[in-house]
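During the reporting period the student researcher (J.K.) took over the structure-prediction task from the postdoctoral fellow and processed the backlog of single-chain submissions. One of the processed entries is reproduced below for the supervisory committee.
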Amino acid sequence: MNDVKISGFVVLFIGVALLLFTFIVAYQFIAGIAEMSSHGDYMDMFSGALGLLITNALRALFLGIMGWIGSILTRRGVQTITSEPKPEKKETKEPPKA
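J.K. obtained the following structure tokens:
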């Protein structure tokens, strides 16, 4: 097996590992979402909800970017593995033209 195919497998496995990690973190994130409590006045509840919304939006953005990068790495790894090697050109010297 040549170096190109080995690097393709390495990139493929890194991409798949990143995708699996992303899905595990996303599952833990979804399973652990805290419910908003209705104790206290409305200003405290609004500021708490806004902070929670911003935190969750940043986490979702982070997970989206991780999934996007993982899918790109996986696609590139598969393309590298399945690509056909280019045939080597044999250099032929043409006779000089008079």
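The committee noted the following: The two ends are 47 Å apart (CA to CA).
J.K. will present the remaining backlog at the next meeting.
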